[in-house]
Amino acid sequence: MRVLHVTHALAPDSIGGVELHLRDLLAHQARRHELLVLARTGEPSSPDYSVRDETRDGLPTRLVVNTYAAVWQAGFERTYRDPAIEAVLARTLEEFRPDVVHLHHLITLSCDLPAVVRRAGVPCVLTLYDYWPLCHRGNLVDWRGQQCSGPEDARCATCVAEQLVCAGAAPLGGRLLARARTQPWFGRVRALAAPLARVALGHVAQRGPAEIARRQAALRQGVLAADLVLAPTRALRAWYLAHGYPAERITHSPLGLPPLAACPRRVRGPGEGPRLGYVGRLTPIKGLHVLLAALRQLPPRGYTLRVFGRWHDDPTWPSYRHDLERLAAGLPVRFEGPFPAGGIADVFAELDLLVLPSVCQENAPLVIQEAKLAGLPVLGSDVSGLAEIVTPGRDGWLFPLGDSVALAERLREVIEQPARLDALSPDAASVRSLDDQARELDAHYARLAGRWVAPAPVEGC
């Protein structure tokens, strides 16, 4: 079967759960299917919307450049709907003639990609990996860095005010803004201008909320133009249902993982305290600051913490790296940076407890499931996506989101009584295999390609 996969980013250009899962899935599917990958890249040295074909990880890959410069020239709508990206997909469909298209994200691409596939008469699968169709930031964390209860037009307009105001001025200053975005000071200027933008929105009656309402309607229409919509967790599916998406259109389908390389954990030496670990992006929504704040409430001995991951800039907390390094000063904490691809088993072998203190609504973090495969206990925030895959007392424990005091108490118990860790037995059998997920996808692809008949056009498509 000929399968076209479309995604917002590819490893190693971008490293995240979606990119790593897709890398494994593509390698697995390439054994049985003829694949082509279409992905966005943000290369600032290449012209926007230029297209380059290459072979990546042995697979034919088409990269289309989108640096978001057009947002500052064409306006806010271009952050979620991009005719130029749609044209690249349409041309790729004509050339490759796939039996089925699997969309892995719409962010940085266009919400109308499912409609483009529909018009071409090809069946389409869309996997929802996060909340972007509901939340412009994608993670249900607001401009203050606080967890959001869900979309509401006026509140969302305040949250992304600087984009609404600046991109809204595109006809007047779009070219200037498009050039300025490449300068190192642009992000700081946007952050400083955001409070003024929120005030400005208040003087433009309903402009911001109306723009958000149009966005939400377009994203909903885009998602529902797909023939099959998959949600990796029940919790993620429940969020979409709670905000008006029809239950019959979204199917629960957990992500699968390949076997983890065998690497037995090193036994703690005599007198050696628990070895704690954090693995993930170093960005505010992942909550490393909550973990460090918890450790500052404890004596700086009897444990070690190793932090693995890349630093990511975030305008909601521009001094994040500096503040984390200050919080870690004087503690037995080591910032290790990223580890090599395929090295997660070696990292886990040196840990006794993985801590994931996220302050956002996680979906189904791969690192948690990889830890379960390795038999490594997990201590994570009690958010819906984690609570679905971590059983307290067996796989590890959960603590209230953002509560550094509760986290400190749990860590104190572990440090003072390391045997509590040894009593845990993470359930590797509860992690879905990549083989099993691939078989399910094959069945979906075959069903859609075998009896797919072009349905009546979706309104506005």
Any overview of this molecule?
This protein is 39% helix and 15% strand. It has two domains: 272 residues, Rossmann fold; 156 residues, 3-Layer(aba) Sandwich (Rossmann fold). Helix 5 packs across helix 9 and helix 6 packs across helix 8. The chain is globular. The protein contains 18 helices and 14 strands. Strand 10, helix 12 and strand 11 form a beta-alpha-beta unit. The two termini are 27 Å apart. About 1% of the residues have low confidence. The strands form two sheets. The protein has an eight-stranded mixed beta sheet with strand order 3-4-2-1-5-6-7-8, sandwiched between helices. The protein has a six-stranded parallel beta sheet with strand order 11-10-9-12-13-14, with helices on both faces. It has 461 residues and is α/β, with parallel strands linked by helices.
What features would you highlight for this structure?
461 residues, alpha/beta, Rossmann fold, 2 domains, 8-stranded mixed β-sheet, 6-stranded parallel β-sheet, 18 helices, globular
Summarize the structure.
This protein is an alpha/beta fold and 461 residues long. The protein has 18 helices and 14 strands. Helix 11 runs parallel beside helix 12.
